[in-house]
Amino acid sequence: MAAADYRRVIVKLSGEALSGSEPFGIDQATADRFAADLIAAQALGVTLGVVVGGGNLLRGATAASHGADRTIADVMGMLATVMNALALESAIERRGAKARTVSALAMPQVCETYERRAARRHLDEGRIVLFAGGTGNPFFTTDTTAVLRAAEMGADAVLKATNVDGVYSADPKKDPAATRYERLGFDEALDKRLGVMDLTAFSLARDHAIPIIVFSIREPGAVESVLRGTGRATIVGG
Ligand SMILES: Nc1ncnc2c1ncn2[C@@H]1O[C@H](COP(=O)(O)OP(=O)(O)O)[C@@H](O)[C@H]1O
Ligand SMILES: O=c1ccn([C@@H]2O[C@H](COP(=O)(O)OP(=O)(O)O)[C@@H](O)[C@H]2O)c(=O)[nH]1
């Protein structure tokens, strides 16, 4: 299937990307640019769910390496994803499109609690659904959350929007000689332990035959270009 044929996708947005050129936190101008990008992608007739990370605010494993209790640190990481989702939700709504944050951690004063059927209905009705709170469990990542929600929502693909323009033979930030793949099978990604995504996420995607498209969110309009099949990206398992 060409990327342009996808009807429903889950966009995984790295938390780090939301800080824009700042070292930390939520950069409103960047949130606004992502909102514009998502709305442009939706205008192609694609229904969109978004899983946002929390790395711009807190990563559980990093906090634990500094002495925090891992499970508590992971809860803090999941709470960070809720803040990011709310920032994106309001940026999308400021532009006049409909968005709904649903959280795997119940916080009824803040947003809807994730429930599979209700979330599917929001997508069917054309709302951009922001899946917050990760899976709701420690020791998982938002990459795994994106694949999980893609399986539950009946999505055709996960679009992993990050700070690299695809999957490389090694981490391109550490190895300047690393070469970029255009396409890659799940087994190869798993066997070679290509670190762009965690192995739990890759294996869940393989089990459910959900392709993962990795691309850079730095270019404005990147989500739309990937959906049109014109953007620079690596397709894993497609
Ligand atoms: N084989 C690889 N190909 C591409 N990127 C890789 C690879 N191995 C590690 N990476 C790293 O994965 C990161 C992208 O994943 P992402 O989930 O957005 O960030 P993080 O893991 O820091 O939260 C990039 O910063 C990149 O340096
Ligand atoms: O199901 C999940 C998803 C996320 N997290 C926590 O939330 C943090 C932020 O998510 P992630 O690191 O995936 O964000 P990203 O790297 O995309 O910014 C993680 O470090 C974990 O501590 C978690 O505990 N369970």
From TrEMBL:
GO terms (BP aspect): 'de novo' CTP biosynthetic process; UDP biosynthetic process
Provide the binding site for ATP. K12, L13, S14, G15, G55, R59, T162, N163, Y168, D171
UniProt binding sites for UMP = G54, D74, T135, G136, N137, P138, F139, F140, T141, T142
The record's function comment reads: Catalyzes the reversible phosphorylation of UMP to UDP.
SUPFAM superfamilies in the record: Carbamate kinase-like
Subunit structure, interactors included: Homohexamer.
- Its protein name is Uridylate kinase
What is one Pfam family matched by this protein? AA_kinase
- Activity regulation info: Inhibited by UTP.
Q: Which GO terms describe its cellular component?
A: cytosol
Write down the superkingdom of origin: Bacteria
Residue ranges spanning the membrane: these are: none
Which pathway, metabolic or otherwise, does it act in?
Pyrimidine metabolism; CTP biosynthesis via de novo pathway; UDP from UMP (UMPK route): step 1/1
Q: Where is the Aspartate/glutamate/uridylate kinase domain?
A: 8-216
Q: Which Gene3D superfamilies match?
A: Acetylglutamate kinase-like (3.40.1160.10)
Its recorded reaction(s) are:
UMP + ATP = UDP + ADP
Cite the InterPro entries for this sequence: AceGlu_kinase-like_sf (IPR036393), Asp/Glu/Uridylate_kinase (IPR001048), Uridylate_kinase (IPR011817), Uridylate_kinase_bac (IPR015963)
The record's subcellular location field reads: Cytoplasm
* Entry EC no(s): 2.7.4.22
Which family, according to the similarity comment?
Answer: Belongs to the UMP kinase family.
- One of the record's GO molecular function terms: ATP binding
